[in-house]
Design brief:
The complex is a heterodimer.
Chain A (H helix, E strand, L loop, with lengths): L9 H35 L6 H24 L1 H7 L7 H27 L12
Helix pairs in contact in A: 1-2, 1-4, 2-4
Chain B lengths: L15 H8 L14 H30 L9 H35 L8 H20 L27 H29 L12 H33 L12 H35 L6 H14 L15 H13 L1 H17 L8 H23 L2 H7 L3 H30 L6 H27 L16 H28 L37 H4 L3 H6 L13 E6 L6 E7 L5 H17 L3 H20 L9 E5 L2 E4 L8 H30 L16 H23 L9 H26 L8 H32 L9 H31 L1
Antiparallel strand pairs in B: 1-2, 3-4
Helix pairs in contact in B: 2-3, 2-4, 2-15, 3-4, 3-5, 3-7, 4-5, 4-18, 5-6, 5-18, 5-20, 6-7, 6-8, 6-20, 7-8, 7-10, 7-13, 8-10, 11-13, 11-14, 13-14, 14-15, 18-19, 20-23, 20-24, 21-22, 21-24, 22-23, 23-24
Classes of the chains: A mainly alpha, B mainly alpha.
The structure holds protoporphyrin IX containing FE.
Amino acid sequence: MKAGNDAGPLAGGIFYLLIGPVIWAAHLLLVYGPQSALCAFRADGMIVVAPFVITALVGVLTVTSMATLALVFWRPRQVARLLRFDAAEETDRRFSISAMRLLTALSFAGVTWAGAVVLFLDPCAQLR
Amino acid sequence: MVDFTAINPTPRPPGELEELKRVWATPKGWRIVTAVNNTVIGLFYIGVAFLFFLMAGVLALLMRTQLAVGDNNFIGQELYNQMFTVHGTTMMFLFAVPAVEALGVMLLPQMLAARDLPFPRLSAFAIWAYVVGGLVFFSTIFYDLAPAGGWFMYPPLTLKEYSPGDNADFWLLGIGFIEISAIAGAVEIVVGTLRTRPPGMSLAKMPIFAWSMLIFASMIMFAFPAVILATMMLEIERSFGWPFFTAEFGGDSLLWQHLFWFFGHPEVYIIFLPAAGLVSMMVPTMAQTPLIGYRLIVVALIATGFFSFGLWVHHMFTTGIPALSLAFFSAASMAVALPSSIQVFAWIATIAAGRERFRITTPSLFILGFLFIFTIGGLTGVMVAMVPFDFQVHDTYFVVAHFHYVLVGGMVFPLFATFYYWTPMVSKNMLSERLGRWVFWLMFLGFNIAFFPMHLTGLLGMPRRVWTYPSELGWDTLNMISTVGAYMLGAGVFLFVFDLLLRFRPGGSGPENPWRAGTLEWLPNDVYSTRSIPLVTSREPIWDQPDLAEDVREGRYFLPNAPTGGRETIVTSPIDARPQYIIQMPGPGWPPLLAAIFTAAFFLLLTIKLVIVAAVCGVIAVAFCLIWTWSLDVGPAKGSIDIGGGISLPTYVTGPTSHSWWAMVVLMFVAASLYLAYVFSYLFLWTVSPEVWSPAGSPALPALSWPAASTFLLLAGATFVVAAGRLLPPAGKFGVAVPLAIFLALACLAGSLAIEIAGHWRTGLSPSANAYGAMVYLGVFLFGQLAFALVIIGLFTIARHAAGKLDRERRVTFDNLALLYHYTVVQSLLGLALIHGFPRLVG
Ligand code: HEM
């Protein structure tokens, strides 16, 4: 055992591990925020956008997020290099790659699940 | 590769152990209240949390007695309303979160073989604040002063018009204040898990409980600020009439729901994740095999923590939000079931794969009970995540059944398992296994008998939060069964308390490693934690290194003594756990206790509108905080010390490596989440009521020269702070330029704040006119809070420099001031852009 610092910067390490869920959160925020705001404006008559614009927006954001997640899953080492993340031991490195990939896979499921609803529902309809 | 050069020669020099004992001795007699050691205050913390469980449990039994038969008059309507509010609030805020936080304080240092958490006095402060604040809050039920708006305190019901009196204020100020104590605990836990792990325990080798506590504390950092902001807004509206939640003036009560549930939903996972972490520690021991799917469980914990922030709208399905938005959150609510089920399967697999047959002990029974109950709760959770189903059962007893299944199953059962499992670590005797079976079966059967029928009463249409119901509706039998079950559950808890009184004897440890566990908390322990701090090479060190206990006890590992002559522990790097420095920690003392008592007094006296006395208490509290922090920055006088294994470590560091820098960064994250919640609220109210916004519905904004002047002063202040840092003289010298620069920086800050207030005031904008005015002044208020803190820290920094305790090397206090100052500048610039830019952009 030697005294000293970690192999890579901590912020890079945290972001590396969490990149999947971060994309998931960004997706949720980006589809929910504009969609609910645009629907509120339609109801007020302030800005009236056509419903298909909202649908398309959600669709495009979903497909983009899914593609990004797939890319991250496919190229974990490149992402690590980009974030200057490295672990000192091989076991730790393998641990972080597989944890990151699993989280990305779960986030992919989450994004697909949430985004898919746009295929079935009218963008601003109320349930009652 | 294991590097055994770490091992110290033995036998160790005489007197080392005695020195350790002396340094870490617990204060005797009534001075025990000044103790700060985690083993003492942790135990005290969990004891008080359990007391709140018992008291809220008594309220639950009284409510169940009232509901046993229809048309009952045992408890009147008003008292019943207060009871469910106090029961729910106490269980969530005063029992569940503090209990797991207490377990973190108590168990983490032992699991990480650290001598203590990095900020012992902060823990003590948090605990005392909670004890005083919590007891006063609970006692309101005895004087008809308790809040009655339900544990989520929805406005408009909780606005002054509909909830007159001080009752709701006790909730808002009392609970808001306890949240602050939870945040203090979270700071401790984040820094503790990341920086006080033993050498070699990289993140991938960290015990699952430590992972779960790390995620728990991170979630607190991001979730609690939302509710703190919300309580602040509601209290301001109640006291001063700033209409954040009143529709008539452009406010919206839905804003409260968004903020509350942005906190409230993660809250239930904040409660559950540590409990799951505890289960992940106990299952491998009972199966005598390493946890199957360690990696999967870490992933599941992180994913649950993250996803839980995307579910809050599922509490608001019936509020009239568009269907598509609901569907996003319905999907997320179902997605969160995936990581939870990963954990359940990993536990079942570990039980199945055991080297020995899964041992049926009392802790294992509680774990099996937990699996059964929590899974049912999870399944009904997926049911209510479906929007149409939720429309049917919203606000009925089905929901009461669901959340008790997840809360009692997911938290109370693991907690009881924990009590039985870890008692030998802190008590001379174990708890009785024989009585334990009785406790378990009474609690398990009682729970199911009490709560399963509530699914049916709910489906039959019985609403929650009703003090009584007409007998002819056919709900009587089911309610009677529920009440009988509740009393059975109560009998189980009573038996547990009886056993506890009989056998629990704190102040020493019982049989060594009675369950044959593999993790470090089962190493021989004393007040100083382990005699020496081991080098960790695997996840279950005790299983993999058969001589570990002996080697640790004999002092063959790191830091087998107290070389600085005071309390200390090793700080390691956050990912790979390489030793970095020795942190010198404070010992017992009065200031944290007194600061906590006066802080609690400040908030509580404010509740009953004794403003002047409250202010005096506030000043005293701040004074005690300053006395306490005065002794913290010990400086580099002790030089470097040898911790064994040929490693020599400094005893003082500053900058990004130091734990105090880390604590400040964590606090900045908390402040940033609070501010983001504010930005969200501003934009939310604008989408709801654009008609009250400037310039159409409110006075036009001040001319751009006003925010420009504020900006200039902020940037000038930041420059003064940078200059002060550069001007710090070497040790022993006093430079008048430093106090001057700090003073100018503070003056700039105050000037900027004054300009911002004056600018809006001159336009005629009033905070109580409408929601826009209220939001503008709230932004100023948040800026003012930071500025106030900075003025105190700034003057404190100047005083330290004048006293010769702050110089170029010994600069932790200054670094903290600089960090917070720069943060404040960034936040305020963002605020200026929002307040002065946004209405111009959209207006
Ligand atoms: C130990 C046995 C318990 C029993 C018999 C029990 C019973 C009850 C009863 C009768 C209510 C009122 C229902 C209504 O009128 O709508 C209630 C509400 C509630 N309980 Fe419990 N409870 C127990 C434990 C817990 C625990 C451990 C927690 C949390 C950790 C908890 C959290 C809540 C909450 C949040 C509410 C909702 C309060 C509100 O409507 O504002 N309970 N419980």
